[in-house]
Amino acid sequence: xxxxxxxxxxxxxxxxxxxxxxxxxxxxxxxxxxxxxxxxxxxxxxxxxxxxxxxxxxxxxxxxxxxxxxxxxxxxxxxxxxxxxxxxxxxxxxxxxxxxxxxxxxxxxxxxxxxxxxxxxxxxxxxxxxxxxxxxxxxxxxxxxxxxxxxxxxxxxxxxxxxxxxxxxxxxxxxxxxxxxxxxxxxxxxxxxxxxxxxxxxxxxxxxxxxxxxxxxxxxxxxxxxxxxxxxxxxxxxxxxxxxxxxxxxxxxxxxxxxxxxxxxxxxxxxxxxxxxxxxxxxxxxxxxxxxxxxxxxxxxxxxxxxxxxxxxxxxxxxxxxxxxxxxxxxxxxxxxxxxxxxxxxxxxxxxxxxxxxxxxx
Length: 362
Description:
two-stranded antiparallel sheet; alpha+beta; 5-stranded antiparallel beta sheet
């Protein structure tokens, strides 16, 4: 009996890929989509109309921008010629306080830190005769109170209130965190004006004109104060230390002068030489204190000069002025964008549906 072996038709089981088949597939797909041009056009027009409606419904945004430059040329090269006594007292001659902020990039990151933004949000501002915090101003002016706190027992939360329990403080911190995330992702923008420059541009964009301007100004003020205090902290400590030492030596020097004068008056006609020993000792003390006092005064003046040089100068170039320019998306632009989006989506949908039908039929 002859054994018959039936081999499957490999062409039917496996549809091998070839450029010719790909070209045919593309042609068929193009013909299919052309046959559906009415549906594609209709969907695209509907999407375009939706873009026009969106341009009417969306509120305009207002952008406030502050541009400033940092002048640290004197601070970078400030080296002080302290006296030998100052070095013996342990006073540093190189006062590069706040070196972490010597880079403009670090200053840009500082403006986006939660520490300073939260400090700004907790500051108060007078709006229409009412004193509120910037956090409440954000929630009320941009309608985030209704979005985030609707139905919550903390809906009427006031950040200015002093009487708060633990649960209220935790909820308040969570809201502050949400505001910070929203400001960083949608409202604030910090950039350098070109490479190799120290000019920084900070902008705040929101749907409320007053919030954009006042919050940005308050944030820049907070950052400037923090930056200057950190940059000059070590120099201020040295000045305070020298001032204290100078006052102490001056008082001791004055006391020594009065003591020597009193001794001289009491022993003006002294016969015995032993009485002059105390006078010589007081004279020596006066000379030592005089020399120490003179050196300390010089060191103090040098430290004050260094403090002045270490204090960075922030020069404002552009400031926001009311009324701010509003930015709203145009109807034609929105129509074109949504028209193209609709055409793309309906084309993808039809192509996928045709592909699924082809696979099921074969």
